[in-house]
Each structure stands twice: as structure tokens, then as C-alpha cells.
Amino acid sequence: MAAKTFPLDKTQLEELSRRYPSPFYLYDEQAIRENLRRLRRAFAVFPSYQEHFAVKALPNPFILKILAGEGLGADCSSLPELLLAEMAGIRAEAIMFSANETPAAEYRKARELGAIINLDDLSHIDFLERTAGLPGLVCCRYNPGPLKEGNAIIGKPEEAKYGFTREQLFEGYALLRDKGVRRFGLHTMVASNELRLDYHLETGRLLFELAVEIKARLGIRLEFLNLGGGLGIPYRPEQEAVSWKALAAGLKQLYDRILKPAGLDGLGIRTEYGRPITGPYGWLVARAIHAKHIYREYIGLDASMADLMRPALYGAYHHISIPGKEGWPDTGTYDIVGSLCENNDKFAVQRRLPKIDTGESGDWVIIHDAGAHGRAMGFNYNGKLRCGELLLRPDGSVREIRRRETVEDYFATLDLESLAQFTH
Fold first, then answer.
1. By C-alpha distance, which of 255, 199, 280, 227 is closest to 26?
2. Which domains does the chain have, with CATH numbers?
3. Strand partners, 183
4. pLDDT above 90: residue 141
5. Cβ of 106: how many Cβ atoms within 10 Å?
6. What is the pTM of this model?
7. Is the pLDDT score of 107 beyond 50?
8. What is the mean pLDDT of the chain?
9. pLDDT in tens, 268-300
10. Mean pLDDT (whole number) for 48-54
């Protein structure tokens, strides 16, 4: 059972809201650091290990700087993500840049930073060579197709737009070798939010065996294997987290059994986790401002799916708690909703919760496990302004690391000066 906790009590929240009105995201720095140290201790069983945090999960340079201080790199797939990594002091081969129909300018920035470029298609070899030049180290992304089961969020590998087929992979490495590339990596990413330990071990086995075959067929000794991300977190209280220690130990057994006999001992292991790094240590904090009594009971928040779209997009579950009412009986059944003009603007559907008071001083509503793919997926539909982000420091202080958007931000990309002269 994964207990769902929040680091502040109701009184502390009320005090915080005087400086930073709700809604807002809150991240717990100390909890994130402790989690990272558990990760690094577990994966220290490998001769070489590097975690590249998936920047898309929480693209804030303050967070990235914390992660970099704990030894993490960055997994990027766009120019702004590369710039965020650079702002946080993450450079060179600590950056993994995964191509995905990538424009030439983004390849050039990745080359400028010395990032590891992870190619997504056979045709991208020529494109990269023409537009930015081939680096000395190139990684290729493998799509195993029907050889690997997918899952609900990312879909079946054979239906995914990512990666080389198996035979394209061998052709690609041979072409890169013939063009003078001497250092190689191999990558795959086949699931999202997957909590089955065996699934992740099977991914490791797949890549380990492929590395052996690449050496045998092409004479190429890969420098590292990037097992991707996709590790889930227990969004529901009854779910259990995947243990870093159990994951690393299981992968190490496969490593020793498959790679060592093939003369590949020393090959590095890399990952690109996002969700399990920060997800459990971030919360969307909102206030209950309205109640509606029609065919169902509705509680309206000052947040909306523009702040957290996972429940609307995936039907995803996020646990909800009411500060100050811990231990109260769940006497109400509510749809917890926002103010967007879309009927799927719901954080929870028919959720049993304690009685919720509404109004300007209504109850606080804490939406748990929002520290990854939360604020990052925010949007401005309906003219909604995205909320800010706060960081709870280890000394108990709170720092604003992204202010909330303003109406001026919403209009900033419009040329309003010329609007008066515009004729229809």
C-alpha cells in the first residue's frame, strides 16, 4: 500500500496562499533528492550508469539544476529542452537528444552542446550528416515491433512512429561505421507508466541480446545501452511502486548472464526516467470554490484540465485528499471538475471523499502524484492561464520557481499595436 501524503498542513497552506494564490504546483526538493540517491545506489551495481531525466516530464531549470547536482543528465527532444538543460548546467554527453522528425536547427544545437544524438530512422543518418555533421558517437533507437508487448498509454510498438526496425538497425550501424563513426549506443522506449517489474526486465533482455548480435554480425561493440523510461508510479493507494533495488538487481542478473560471456562486460547502462523521479513528489493544489447539485454532485475547483490534463486525456486516476479532513469518513460522492468549457474537464469521476466545503474559503483539494507530466502538459484553451510552480526547500522555506501566467502573457504574441489599423 502506497500511502499518499502531502508535506504541508492546512494552516501552512493558508499561510502560503497569501503569497501565492491557488492553484499552484508544489514540489518537495528533499524527497526528490532522497529518491535520486536510492536510484543511484541501486544502479551502482553496473560498471557505468547514467540517468538522463526526461525533461518533458518537468521542464523547469530549477528542478533540472537539483537533478544535475545529484549526478543526473537530461533526455531532450526539442530545442527548448536542450536550452533548459544548458541553463541547468547539463552539457555534452550528459544530454541525450532523441530525434523525432527533428528540424535541422535542433540537430545543430545538439551538436553544439556535444549531446549524444539518438537517431530515430534510417533516413535521418543522411539528414544529420548534411545538416549538422556526424558526431563521433551516435545512438540508434530500436522499435521491436511485435517482438515486444506495448501498453495502454504508449500503444503497441508496431503501431508507434518511433525507431528503426530490426533489419534497419543493422543497416544503420553498418552505414554509420562506414561513414567513420566509431562510438555507438543502442536505445529503446516501448512503454509508459508500466508497473510490472518483469516487463522492464524483458526490455533489458531484449537489448542485451541485441547488443550481442550486433557485435557478432557487424563487429561493433556498443558503448552503452539506454533502456529508456516508461517506469510507472503507484497513482492508486493500493498499488506498489517498482523497487529501484529490485529493478537494478534483476537487470544485473541478465547483464551477467548475457553480456559477460559475449565479451561485453563494462558496457554502460543508461535510463531516461521522468515520472518515477519527480512524479510522486509534486502536487497540484487547488481550492473548492463551487458546488453544483444536479444529476450528480459536482465540486468545482479554481484549477482545470488546462493545469492537469492527464485525467481527461488518458482517463488517468490521481488520488485526491482534503487537508484538515484526514480520517474523516467518505460521506460524499463527487465529480471534481474545473471551469473549462469541455465536459471532460474532470479530475475525478464519482469519487468517494469527505464532505467538501466550497466558497472563497472553501476546502483545499490536493491532487497527488502530479510532479511529472502535470504542469508540463498545460495549455491555454478557453483563455485559461497556467498556474505557477513552487519548490519546498529542505529547510522548510518555499520558493517560487515559475510564476503563474497573466493576461499580459496570454496576449504577448499578438501584435496589438497594429490591431487598430487592421481593416476587415
1. 280
2. 29-279 (3.20.20.10), 280-411 (2.40.37.10)
3. 137
4. yes
5. 22
6. 0.95
7. yes
8. 95
9. 999 999 999 999 999 999 999 999 999 999 999
10. 98
User: Mind listing the pLDDT tens digit for each residue in 1-32?
Assistant: 567 999 999 999 999 999 999 999 999 999 99
The residue type at 46: F
Cell (9 digits) for 294: 444536479
- d(CA 132, CA 375) in angstroms, rounded, equals 33
Residue pair 346/320 in contact by the 8 Å Cβ criterion: no
Residue 226's pLDDT is 98
CA distances from 144 to 161, 194, 268, 356, 370 (A): 12, 17, 21, 48, 31
Question: What are the C-alpha distances in Å from 305 to residues 145, 187, 299, 314, 383?
Answer: 33, 33, 14, 12, 12
Three cell numbers, residue 191:
512503454
- Pull the grid cell for residue 305: 484540465
Q: What's the whole-number mean pLDDT along residues 340-349?
A: 96
Q: Rounded CA gap, 64 and 41, in Å?
A: 20
CB atoms within 10 A of CB 185: 22
Q: For residue 419, with 0-12 CB atoms within 10 Å meaning exposed, 13-18 middle and 19 or more buried, which class applies?
A: exposed
pLDDT digits over 146-177, tens only? 654 555 545 566 666 689 999 999 999 999 99
